[in-house]
Design goal:
This protein has 217 residues and is an alpha/beta fold. It has nine helices and six strands. Bound molecules: 1,6-di-O-phosphono-beta-D-glucopyranose and magnesium ion. The site of 1,6-di-O-phosphono-beta-D-glucopyranose (B16) has 20 residues, from helix 3.
Length: 217
């Protein structure tokens, strides 16, 4: 049975959460309130629009549609300056080993991310060539935990959804993978990602033999 492997971006391939945090914090401070790293946890895997809605709830701020749109743009412009200089040193440990193993075995690989900046980030860190399909915030209408992003990725890989494996660091992402009937692998704290089929702290804990088992499953 043909298998497909789908990777989330932020928190799985690279740690861009720290840059999202800096950009959201700058906007919060500009609007006159604090935004903590703990609050930034709520933003993982969540669309940019939803992040701003949550930020404004945290700051108890109302916004006109015009202000909302302006702040979305400002945050992204700021975020783009942070990611501008990203390079391969920012790839999370052992991600290239897993991607190379899958490539060697001719397994189709997709990206399934909420980010609208996914493709330039993969280019900057030099991993774009591994991906047979990129599905990101530009291609979907429904955000995770809706399974749309992963179902579209499976379709683009020409693999049945229930033959796909998803690596995710966000609760909403694990829920999306489960809703798509895919095998969900949680990357991060097992207590947080308790709904995942398997849990690992990071890719250094995942052996090639384990990947091979998933391929043959
Ligand atoms: P952008 P992922 C997500 O990436 C981030 O985890 C989330 O914090 C961010 O708001 C979202 O992308 C949208 O990103 O503003 O670049 O479109 O984890 O789904 O790869
Ligand atoms: Mg993520």
């Amino acid at each position: 049975m043909k298998k497909g492997f789908i990777f989330d971006l932020d928190g799985v391939i690279v740690d861009t959460a720290k840059y999202h945090y800096l950009a959201w914090k700058k906007l919060a401070n500009q609007l006159g309130f604090e935004f903590t790293e703990a609050q930034n946890e709520l933003f993982k895997g969540v669309s940019r629009k939803r992040c701003l809605e949550i930020l404004l709830e945290i700051g108890k701020r109302e916004a006109t549609q015009e202000e909302f749109d302006t702040w979305m743009i400002e945050k992204n412009v700021d975020y783009l300056t942070y990611i501008e200089n990203m390079d391969a040193s920012e790839i999370l440990p052992d991600v290239p080993r897993i991607l190379a193993y899958l490539k060697e075995k001719n397994i189709p690989i997709a990206l399934g991310s909420a980010s609208k900046n996914a493709q330039p980030i993969l280019e900057k860190v030099g991993l774009l060539h591994y991906f047979d399909a990129i599905v990101d915030g530009n291609n979907v209408t429904k955000a995770k935990p809706d399974p749309e992003v992963f179902l579209l990725a499976a379709k683009q890989l020409d693999v049945n959804a229930d033959n796909c494996v998803v690596f995710e660091d966000a609760v909403a992402g694990v829920e999306a993978a489960n809703a798509a009937n895919m095998i969900s692998i949680g990357i991060g704290a097992a207590e947080v990602l308790s709904e995942a089929d398997c849990n690992f702290t990071d890719f250094t804990e995942i052996s090639n033999a384990f990947i091979q088992k998933l391929i043959e499953k």
